Amino acid sequence: MNKYRKSTQLPEGAEKFPLLPKLLATSFGAGFLPVAPGTWGAIVAIILWLPLYIWASPATTVIVTAIATVVYCAAGTWASNESEKYWGKDPVVACADETVGQWISLLPVTGLCPWWEILLSLALFRYFDIFKPLGIRSMERFPGGWGMMADDILAGIYSALIILALNLFVL
Question: What are the φ/ψ torsions at residue 10 (nearest 5 degrees)?
């Protein structure tokens, strides 16, 4: 097993990893934080998204979130592929997939929703991402960056569906 999966110490030769894919793969460096890099990647998503929730219309929030998700999914998949060349298979510091999955989870949360749905989206997304029920684990079988990204996309979709159901049928 790659020792870098369990540690945030840089393996030998990793300093040669080009800056742009390194920043993209690690959600702008959040993956280097010492504990729970996946959670930090999801928190980066919330921090970047929060101005939309506060100031944008619901339609703008959904549209901008969807566009950012698609763009960062493509860039993050490429960067995650690159990260495996330097850090080994599915390195823990490569958390762009958590940022993308969290944005998907936030799609049904708009300024019309109560603030606690942001925390609920984080909790649901991290639950699905960590425990990988309902076929999420099987998504990891895709090669390279696609496998790294696919399970978090599905975790985000499940989280978004629960929040959507909550908004439609409970609130």
Answer: -70, 130
Integer CA distances (angstroms), 38 to 30, 55, 78, 110, 142, in order: 8, 27, 18, 24, 19
Query: Look-up: residue for tokens 């080009």?
Result: 18
Q: What is the pLDDT of residues 130-165, one digit of tens each?
A: 999 999 999 999 998 999 999 999 999 999 999 999
Q: At what angle do helices 144-169 and 116-131 cross, to 10 degrees?
A: 140
Phi, psi for 107 (deg, rounded to 5)? -55, -40
Contacts of 65 (CB under 8 A, 6+ apart): 49, 52, 103, 106, 107
The answer to whether residues 75 and 129 touch, using CB atoms and an 8 Å cutoff, is: no
Distance (Å, whole) CA 42 – CA 45: 5
How many Å apart are CA 136 and CA 128, to the nearest integer?
8
| 84 φ, ψ (degrees, to nearest 5) | -65, -25
pTM: 0.91
Is 37 buried (19+), middle (13-18) or exposed (0-12) by CB count in 10 A?
A: buried
